[in-house]
Amino acid sequence: MRDVDIARLGDELYGAMRARKAVAPLTSREADVTIADAYHVSLHTLRRRLADGERLIGKKIGVTSKPVQRMLDVHQPDFGYLTDRMKFSSGCELPISTQLIQPRAEGEIAFELKRDLVGPGVTNEDVLAATECVMPCFEVVDSRIEAWKIRIQDTVADNASSGLFVLGDDRVKPGDVDFYSCGMVVEKNGEIISTGAGAAALGSPLTCVAWLANTLGTFGEKLVAGDIVLSGSLVPLEPVVAGDEMKLVIGGIGRASVRFV
């Protein structure tokens, strides 16, 4: 795809995000768009956001669990960028009605890195050694694509359908966590709606972060010390509206809560 077309699509998605108005799927209009093209579209949109004064603070991994893959009909992981304006603290009121279009919440484990991870060749052991701490997290994904009618190129171009995220107050050393069997319980409006375990995300959240570091390496990028990395959902996506409240608990890690406004 030509640079001018990548910029055009990136500008379109940037405008959709700012106006909170979804657009038709890119794949329905751009027959030749590849996954590599889509990542460049996402990067163009990021540059627009950074020019607005946002600051890059990390990356997110999406579509890692089978329930989410089946729900979205997208069957491989992707990644997007996190900025400081996307980050909120546990117990907050999350402004989905003024910032997002069609939000869905998911529970996952967030990593904070203490050293760089540069692919290819990054292993789960490398991720463990490079991690300062892990935290419970709600990611509230969104799509600038109409009715979530996405293929892999659409969600990649749309910054991996990123929205906002909420970090719990608990911070745990990674060596104290069983990333395979740690269990998650998610409540919505006082009722348990889903449960999951670390193994739901590509077998382990460590595997997800290693996948990201190695995939970034193919684009000449890396994970750097201080990055926050959202490692992928352990439970199905849950649509949310203003007035909803959600809580999650992850065994051995901690809890987080959020109220949507």
Descriptive overview:
With 261 residues, the chain is of the alpha+beta class. It has a single domain, classed as Fumarylacetoacetate hydrolase, domain 2 (Alpha-Beta Complex). Helices cover 28% and strands 30% of the residues. It contains seven helices and 13 strands. Helix 1 crosses helix 2.
Question: Beta-strand percentage?
Answer: 25-35%
CATH topology: Fumarylacetoacetate hydrolase, domain 2
Helix content: 25-40%
Q: What's the domain count?
A: 1
The major beta sheet can be summarized as: 8 strands, mixed
Low-confidence stretches: none
| Broad shape | globular
Give the averaged pLDDT, no decimals: 95
Query: If helices are DSSP runs of H or I spanning 4 or more residues, what is the number of helices?
Result: 7
Sum up the structure in keywords.
7 helices; single chain; 28% helix; alpha+beta; five-stranded mixed sheet; eight-stranded mixed sheet; Fumarylacetoacetate hydrolase, domain 2
Fold topology:
Layout: H1 3-19, H2 35-51, E1 56-62, H3 66-72, E2 78-83, E3 87-89, E4 92-94, H4 96-99, E5 104-113, H5 124-130, E6 131-141, H6 152-157, E7 164-167, E8 183-188, E9 191-197, H7 205-218, E10 228-233, E11 238-239, E12 245-250, E13 254-260
Parallel strand pairs: 1-10, 3-7, 4-13
Antiparallel strand pairs: 1-2, 5-6, 5-10, 5-11, 6-7, 8-9, 8-12, 12-13
Helix pairs in contact: 1-2, 5-7
